[in-house]
Amino acid sequence: MHMADALISPAVGGVMWTATAGLIAYSAKKVSIEADDRKVPLMGVLGAFIFAAQMINFTIPATGSSGHLGGGMILAILLGPYAAFLVMASVLIVQALFFADGGLLALGCNIFNLGFFSCFVAYPLIYRRVVGQKSTQGRILVGAVISAIVGLQLGALSVVLETVFSGISELPFHTFVLLMQPIHLAIGIVEGLVTAAVVTFVWKARSEIVRASRNAVPIGKVSMKKVLVGLFAAAVIAGGTLSWFASSNPDGLEWAIFRTTGKEELETPHNLHVALAKVQEKTAFLPDYSIKKSEDEKTPGADAKAPWPAVDPGTSVSGLVGGSLTLFMVVLMGVGLRRRKGQS
Amino acid sequence: MNNIGKNSFDIGYLDTLAAGDSSLHHLDPRAKLITTCAFIITVVSFDKYALAVLIPFFIYPVALISIGGLPAEYLLKKAFLVCPFAVLVGIFNPLVDREIIFHIGAIGIPGGWVSFLSILLRFVLTVTAALILVSLTGFNRVCEALLQLGVPKAFVVQLLFFYRYIFVLTDEAERMVRARSLRAFNASAMGLRNFISLAGHLLLRTLDRAERIYRAMCCRGFDGHIRIIRSSKIRCQEVVFASAWLFVFVLLRFFNVSLKIGDVIMGLFQ
Q1: Whole-angstrom Cα distance, residue A138 to residue A131?
Q2: From start to end of B59-111, where are the E strands?
Q3: Is residue A343 part of a domain?
Q4: How far apart are CA A97 and CA B67, in angstroms?
Q5: pLDDT in tens, A289-325
Q6: Domain spans of chain B, in order of start
Q7: Which residue segment(s) compose the domain that A289 sits in?
Q8: In this predicted complex, what is the ipTM?
Q9: If you measure CA to CA, which chain A residue comes closest to B86?
Q10: A101 vs B: CB within 8 A
Q11: What SS3 state is found at A67?
Q12: Is residue A225 domain-shared with residue A256, that is, in the same domain?
């Protein structure tokens, strides 16, 4: 469920990056306050473990398809939420840079989707409550399965919301949700079972490891509030930048919202949808809409943004011809540069 | 070589490329990191029907690949290998958005296809940009740049640890998987039960290893900080590199080169 740069808008990417960067800074501070020298090498090596374990495929019982470990919950259980979030972020950074899995701008989204929900929501609110002070095999199993399911459901929902708000994909919200949630329910169950089994394995062999991590400092209420305030502030700031974008760029977030809800209004005539669509219609058709229209003419094909496409075949064909020629010139330049380099 | 081996080979290969010796390799990592981010943000800032405007942006990966002497086919192949999610989500565009937005001759082109192609173009551009960054810089120097740009030290230090041990642990995982498959008469699928025992043992070994590493480092005077020799600094080249590219990005963002060239060509024929 790694999102790609190609599917998100700068506004969504920016908001998620701000949130993620804030969480990384906050977690890093927490980890350095703990001042456990041992922890930093342990984090690095456990990250490498998750990375290696993700590459081992296993057969999912009763389906015949193969899956692999996600690892967010195992990390949270062994390292505590802060260190686990940092390790998860590192795993995703390396995947983004070396396997081009997800993109650099989408990295903020990916770290948030896969790290935040399992480390800061599912682990403290579900796993720790279920398992409590006395770990038993049954409690670990129940806690791990429920928290893995919740973590993945929230993560998948977040992927859907980010994609829909970006407005690059045409997938309507409800279709996408119906596609993502059931798949991730199945993945969550398997992930939970595997997590529980691996944790139990370690717990049986070396119970002190699992016990030690349980004594890690829990999240204080005040600190979470700070995180939430930070997220809100980030959203406001990004919203401000976004409105600037909307005036210079015809395709902002508002436009995307209008477009998807506009479609939903046609397909599912619920009152709420209609009401929402109307509100968003108002916000989307800002007074500067006429400016947007004139800006549209700069980009070929963008004339479809107008409600009734004002088709200008001349512009579009010029765009195509020019585009192909530009591509040709760029490739030629590349070959030329390489040849010159070869001679020198 | 199985799947795991191939993956760690890939990481190693990109790092080998980063040991290259071109003018781009010698630039300060910060300049490259910032330019790459600016490039990606500019590319994704276009509206979803942008197609021709995106094409001039190929100048960035093409120029860097050529000057840096990187293997273009390898990077492209790598980019295409990882595109399923973008394609899976993007492929719905032609199905949902069937409004004809322009005509070539008598053929009407639906908006969905234009936006799908746009997604693919964005994908190739952004993904190659990220791969180029690593293969021109190397992961350790990217981390160095992150540290200099103010990313918390605890995070960067464990990131460096993590990177160092990827190779060790993927090797270890590969050996375990190979050992299992040899004893299972090469049955390709591993059951859940086997996987759990395998992953559990790998985890125990990992934890022991972490402890040994920690002790070994304590013996050598580790006090929680990794000291990096910083030879890099911002010189004239870095400023020129970053500002020239930023200028190009802004120019291409607000000035549709493809359209202008197309207009000239069409003008010649009319």
Answers
A1: 9
A2: 100-104, 107-110
A3: yes
A4: 20
A5: 333 333 343 344 434 344 444 445 555 666 667 777 7
A6: 3-149+235-269, 153-219
A7: 250-305
A8: 0.83
A9: A4
A10: yes
A11: strand
A12: no
